Amino acid sequence: MIKYKYILLVFFIIVSLIHSEYVVKNVITAPTDYCYNGSGCEFTYVVVFTDNEGLGLSGCLNCGLLFYIYSKVGNEYLVRLTATVGFGMANTTLMITDDTTNSHDTVFPTPVCMEIPYPVTLLQPVSFQKYIFANSLDLIDTYERFRIMSLGFKLNVTKGVKWTVTCQGVKCLDPSYSSMNSDMQFITITWESPVMDPAAPVALTQPESFTVTFTDSLTRSTVFTVNNPIANADTSNVEVSIHPSPTSTFVKIPNSLNYFVTVPRNFSSNMIAYNAMTSALEVSVPRGTLVYQDNFTATMLYSNKIELQDTWRSSINFYSNYTLEYKDTNATFLGSLSSPLLSPLYTLQSTLQNIVDQPTYRIVTVGITAMTYASGNTSILMNMGGSMFFRLTPPYPIGIMDGNYGSAIGQYSLVISAFCRSNMGFYYGSANPASYDVISTTPDNVIPDITKVEWVSLKGLTMVIRITASDSDSGVAYIQIGQSSKSDGYKLFPSDLISGTFKSGVFEKVITLEAKEIIDLERILIFDQAGNQAMIDYEFKSGNLYPPFKIFPYAIPLSDFQPSDTFINYFEFLHNDIDCTDTDFVNTLVLNFSTPNNQYRKVFIKLDHDKDYTAGEWDDVYKAFVINFKIPMNPPPGPLFYNLRYPSITLSSFDLVQMIGSKAELRVVSQRGGDRMPPAITSVTPIQFATFLTWTIVIEDLINGFKSGIIQIQSTNDLQPYEFLLNSVGKNQSLDTYVLSIPIPSVCRVAESYQIVYVELEDNGGAKGIYSRGLVIDNGISPLLYLENEITVLNVPCTTPSSDITPPYVVGNSVLGIPLDVFSNTRLVNISFQIKDADSNISGRHIPWCRYYTLYQEFYIKSNSYTQVLANHYIADCSTNLPYGFGFPIGEFYISIHGYADDVYNVGGNEWSVPFQVTSMFNVPIIESYLPVYTDEDQLVLFGRNFGEILTDIAIHISSNSTVNYTANAFSTVMVNIISIPKSNVPYDVIVYVAGVASNTLTVVPKVRQVIVFPTPTPSFTQVPQKCAGTPECSGKGTCTPTGCICSEPWFGIDCSSRVIPSQPPIVNSSSPQATTQVDIIPGSSDSQEEDIISLTTLISIVSLDEYKFDGTLVNSHKFDEDWVFTNSTLEGSQNLRYLYETQVTRYSTTTNITVAMEWFRDSQIIRFADQDLVMNPSTLKYNITMTKYHFESNLNRLQLRMYASIISSESTVGSCIYQDSGNTTDSDSEYIKLQVNGNSLYGRFIKRAIVDTRITAISTIVTSDTENESTNQISSYLAIQIPFYSTKVHIDPDFSILVDTKPAREQPNSLCTDSLDSDSLTTVQLIGIIVGCSLAVILVGVALFIYQYRKHWTWGVKIRRVFRLQRISRKI
Where would I find the DUF7035 domain in this sequence (predicted)? Predict the structure, then answer.
């Protein structure tokens, strides 16, 4: 409903301003809120004004404080303004001023100003939903809520209200949907203890009831009192267990304190755990995780990181009888320092070593000393210009040049712009940030610019975005679309260039919205290579244009969301009350919304235990969204908590229950209880033998069972740990022993110690615990929590130390394949090199890595092979396919090698100082991926690169059982759309040819559409009509369905009363796209009810292309002459005939190419156009019309492509009837026009969709009768296809058939007939009046005599005269 309000508002604005000097071209935002002050409403808009006077737009005299002119392009102004109206009023007059300070009254329609109801009232009692031990991070945010509640308030409001919600007596979170057009508000509440020292508790109580206050923008408050349903728990059965045990006198750090808290399942209080550090009186709140739950109890695990040496103590707090109680764990721990191998604290020092200047870039080398890889990997953050950041996460051993674990020396060379305008910020690991002077002598201080943003929406929240940008000095570094607290948004780099140069060009990319993070797209940032930044913003002044979207296209905006029982009109889990004991279960959610945007959107679901969402998509067969998701084995029994995301809205299962009832509950059963505890190591026994070391490890997971894991053991001298991959195959998954062995090196340099540094264990239900160098990561549960102290270190002495402190070295570099085109299909670089050592043998375990780097880009490759030649001689290979565009725009890249080592752990690195050259041709098409395609679909969308900009240059080769070439239907340089391909249930290969150049071969694997078995009864997603057309319904030749008649072959039409007449191929005109068809209907045939031969002749042609203003005023008319270029494009051996016509229309400097493909179908065939399956009946004539860019006078204007259709029958005009009918078809989303003469018709179908700028867009057709050439055996009409404003290309697809009708025209209402007494045209109603008023016998005799005389003069030349007649008509139009 809100969308219609937007459309209506825009319509009123356009209509009311057609006589104004300043015309509103577009309203980008429209309000749906109540007033926000005491005197009336202030509606804020972002509007595009067109200045028709050319006097300029300077301001607004009565727009209040808000009037910003964002930009001016030509005579168009982007403006943000405030329109003010009084209560109960609508519309306002804005006094727009021009550059001469003259004011012009402009009527600006606004919605009716409505006052917020006060006091606001409840339409139904407050609803309650308890969060049963919910863990969802989406919901928990920064607080641990062991027990929280969602309250549902259904209020008497119909517009958006910006509520301020406060609670007295409880903790009240912000309402989930506070400023939406909503009558339902969900408030999340919790009870939290204050942060305090467990040793000094404070007496607190909870009230038996609390209040929730809604305050509107006028500061008026309405208070609701709610009974307190919890905070009165029975605490007698609370059990707490501590790890390490309370008897421990100290805990090695870094480590974690862990305590399990078990309570009755109906425990009605929230619960908070606290840890306190005695010396600093610092209190921390550990995160709690539900690890076990059955029908009677629930167990939470609280883990707290201990990283400082101090005395720690802990307690558990909850409410009993509304009074805060403290359960002291009676555990006090003194932290003591652990071994250096586990310490997360280390010092790195970096220095600027060198700067090498090249013509277009600089190489900055940073030296790093005292490197300690305590976490195995590190991170680098580089800052250019104070705002442009590049974050790198190189793996071990990238950057290391010399040394070992305790004293590694590194070097990092970075390629930056030659136009740097400020110092470079450099952050390496946990080292202090450093700033280095890299300012250029010719710095670029000019900000880059974005001049155009375009996009095309595709299925499944995917879009092609195209941005025109420039930076004259250093060039564009990247363009960032949107951002959030967790994501940098989407980025376009110089490698995404499709035309121009990286200093002034067009960038294009395919991006897809994922559910991990809903990104706000209202801001687009651009950075140049020197670090200068510019921004365009949807809300605030931002250069010379605005982003075309505020959120991801087709992601539902918050303003369109109404959390009510009408928002979702179908919701069904296909399975419920599921027994998941010891087994996973794949369930399906089928849902639909009141106003879905079907194929362009996605829905996502995330269960409480999951980290990521599972996506679902629109199913075109079931007309609903379908999500398949997995429930892991042994979940917590009862209703599972989940989140449903319908971008950009997230609804919890508790919100959904309040909106649509118990259908939103996902109920599961587990006979063994709910296990979310990951596997744990219960004991470790290290043993040192003469030549090797062993660790005997016991792993336990009693319910779900241990599945797999990783354990790393490291030496204090070695930068690279030993890694063991564990698998439970053949083992007892509940409890079993695993033995890890490491050989003691035969040579050494110093004594060393070995210790477990990393453990990752996962069970069969997906629960995972990770321990890394003393710290717990990921879900906060350590797999070592049952171990009382740190794992014992095995110390290995060095009896005969080696004096070798020099690492191996690189010799014999070989690089093949350079230079190469990094925009081509073949980007293979063959890199090989040799490693030698003069003093020690080389370690085959330390495999070298290669770092490839260029301007602000880099990637890493582990050597594909490491082959021993001699004990001190190895050969390595780092060959790889370079990423697309790597090395562009500077045309060069560099390579460095790291991580090779000798057997006494001297690790080395090598920097190749010579750059490697690349080229950039942009002329080879590359297929990278495709939109998912199903076995019942005949459309394929390919994504890739360099598909070109000329449609006729593109051909697609598809190979399965046979090889056929196809032509692209819609395209961009990164996308190709192919329609009418054969449906396939087997994989097939695709190749794209652009101007004869072949792409790579991509194998397409069609998906098999899911067969959904609905619970009884089967759902209906559409409204069932009361009755279908025809008497009887569907004329007895079809089935009445909710969408209308489904006709049995060969019948069709809205009432199934028509049947296709097979005909010979049409007679085509080689000078213009005009087709004439002649059909003889023989007496006695199934197509005839007459005694004589009836000859039918039809004419179809294209007349003109006309441009109209929005008010219907004709702007330009381009009448088509007979100057078309004709090509017979019928394929050899094809049953269908195909003819191609091409012409041009030039307006100003723009030439519009118009291509008409006329295809005649001999047999029935199904084609696909604009995501719609269309049945082509035998003898159907289809027009496929494509037009390139047209020069519109205004973006509000539209085009009409006028066609002409006519049918003439050989039957006498005496006693004949004609009838014209039009409307919507029932078998496809189309309009139809039916021109009927007696019992025969010319039927035209116009699909109500066009492909406009590669987007599927709704269109319509206007039918106008040609009364000048009308008689009762001939009927003609003009068919005006309405084409909206477009930028690059439009594609439409009408078709025509000749029918025989079981219901003659005389029986149709308002048909036009002639009678023997009067040759003038009379309607059926008029004829009935004449018949009633006269003698029936006289009339019949007169008619018989007339017909007899007429037929005496009938000749065989009637066909020739009829064809000449149609030709004369065609010349007239």
Answer: 674-798
